[in-house]
């Protein structure tokens, strides 16, 4: 009875997670990241060069973006006509920009990103547990098959097939689930593993990592009672993310408190635009940044501001 109850629980959680992974629509960037009609016209009218750089620089001035392209340009999507938020990428299959895109999964026919990444992880976890459960309960009959302990009927071939299928899926799912657990612990996406995010001052493959505990909470949320249930509990809005980097490009015009800078070249620290409550509290364990610490850090980290060039990413 206990085994039968466990079987039904794992099966229901597996189906629920799979359903949510498939039918949860990927989140797209909010309206503030889309170019205005006038900026879009200016961008199309002006030739590539300094004029286009100025249009994008003006459009991204008040946006919480800290990553750039390989050439130092603002990440712009010419198909969606928007300035890409950090960790956002354009999916060629869905033909739209996906927030915190991890990959496009053909098995669920959907993009795995900010809105359904937790569901995808639970789908892998419950699939693995389900396959291991089937393999474990079928093992004794599989042994009897080879020792001629089963009746000579067609059912024994079904037992053999079921064990092999469950065992093979367990091996493949364990490797995939383990890989994504490592991604969560490092606060990375699959795309960021192959190409590290480029910040305004340097490339940093661990720029979004806040430590294991905070990385885990960013995906699963603060309420532990929801961690094992396929309900959305991830922190943030998918458009801006806390980072372990502390220095910031002097382009940004506002401080964390929202005050205007007194000097164009004054160094203000991350973030220039206040994060949402669910994001900023992830940084509460770190020392608060002040003007004194800003000046101290200024000499430690280079503040090269690369010239922005127009570069379209897909």
Key traits:
single chain; 314 residues; mainly alpha; two-stranded antiparallel ribbon; 9 helices; 8 strands; 41% helix; disordered C terminus
Describe the 3D structure.
The structure is a single chain. The protein has a domain at 1-26 and 115-246. It is 41% helix and 6% strand. The protein has nine helices and eight strands. It has helices spanning 2-23, 37-45, 50-59, 117-146, 155-186, 190-194, 212-220, 277-280, 291-298, and strands at residues 67-68, 76-77, 82-83, 89-91, 96-98, 103-105, 110-112, 198-199. The strands form four sheets. It has a two-stranded antiparallel sheet. A two-stranded antiparallel ribbon has the order 2-3. It is elongated and about 80 Å long. It starts with a helix and ends in a 16-residue tail after the last helix. Residues 247-274 and 286-314 have low confidence and may be disordered. One of its GO terms (molecular function) is protein-cysteine S-palmitoyltransferase activity.
């Amino acid at each position: 009875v206990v085994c039968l109850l466990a079987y039904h629980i794992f099966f229901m959680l597996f189906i629920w997670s799979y359903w949510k992974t498939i039918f949860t629509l990927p989140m797209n960037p909010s309206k503030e990241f889309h170019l205005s009609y006038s900026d879009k016209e200016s961008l199309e009218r002006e030739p590539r060069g300094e004029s286009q750089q100025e249009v994008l620089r003006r459009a991204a001035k008040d946006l919480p973006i800290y990553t750039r392209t390989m050439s130092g340009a603002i990440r712009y999507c010419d198909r969606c006509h928007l300035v890409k938020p950090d960790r956002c990428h354009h999916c060629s299959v869905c033909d739209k920009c996906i927030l915190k895109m991890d990959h496009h999964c053909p098995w669920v026919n959907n993009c795995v990103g900010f809105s359904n990444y937790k569901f995808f992880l639970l789908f892998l976890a419950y699939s693995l547990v389900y396959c291991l459960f089937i393999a474990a309960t079928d093992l004794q009959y599989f042994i009897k098959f080879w020792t001629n302990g089963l009746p000579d009927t067609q059912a024994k071939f079904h037992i053999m097939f079921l064990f092999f299928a469950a065992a093979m899926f367990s091996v493949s799912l364990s490797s995939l689930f383990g890989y994504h657990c490592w991604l969560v612990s490092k606060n990375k996406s699959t795309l960021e593993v192959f190409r590290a995010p480029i910040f305004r001052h340097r490339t940093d493959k661990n720029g979004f990592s806040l430590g294991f505990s905070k990385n885990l909470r960013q995906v699963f949320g603060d309420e532990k009672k929801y961690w094992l249930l396929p309900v959305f509990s991830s922190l943030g809005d998918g458009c801006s993310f806390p980072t372990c980097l502390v220095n910031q490009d002097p382009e940004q015009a506002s401080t964390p408190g929202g005050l205007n800078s007194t000097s164009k070249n004054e160094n203000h620290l991350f973030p220039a635009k206040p994060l949402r409550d669910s994001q900023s509290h992830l940084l509460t364990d770190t020392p608060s940044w002040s003007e004194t610490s800003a000046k101290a850090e200024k000499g430690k980290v280079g503040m090269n501001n690369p010239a922005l060039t127009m570069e379209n990413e897909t």
